Amino acid sequence: MAVLKRIGPASAFKIGLVSYAVLGLIAGVFCSLIALAGVSFAPHAHMPFAPAIGLFAVIVCPIVYGIIGGILTAISALLYNLAASWVGGVEVELN
């Protein structure tokens, strides 16, 4: 058994940033599809840029999800390091 005693917050930030950005892209696609489907029923449907507002979610969601996810993952790594220093790390079996 190997014991995971410490997680690097910088590497956790990078992993959180990328994985949450991918989730944000998926969420952004769903948000834009919902917005585009409902644009004909909306009171602002006569506006020429109304469909672009829905497509804007594909750009904004991955950025926001990625930044927030990366920061929260780094904070989680710091909390894990603190707890692991008190009670020991997680035992992991590696081959």
Low-confidence stretches: none
| Order of strands in the sheet with most strands | 1-2
H/E topology pattern = EHHE
Instruction: From the alpha carbons, calculate the radius of gyration and give it in angstroms.
Output: 20 Å
- Please count the helical segments: 2
Which descriptor suits the 3D outline?
rod-shaped
- How many strand units? 2
List the helices and strands and how they pair.
Layout: E1 2-4, H1 9-38, H2 50-87, E2 90-92
Antiparallel strand pairs: 1-2
Helix pairs in contact: 1-2
Offer a few descriptive terms:
mainly alpha, rod-shaped, two-stranded antiparallel sheet, 95 residues
Describe the structure.
This protein is mainly alpha-helical. It has a domain of 61 residues. 72% of the residues lie in helices and 6% in strands. The protein is built from two helices and two strands. Strands 1-2 form a two-stranded antiparallel ribbon. The longest helix has 38 residues. The protein is rod-shaped, with a radius of gyration of 20 Å. The model has no long low-confidence stretch (mean pLDDT 88).
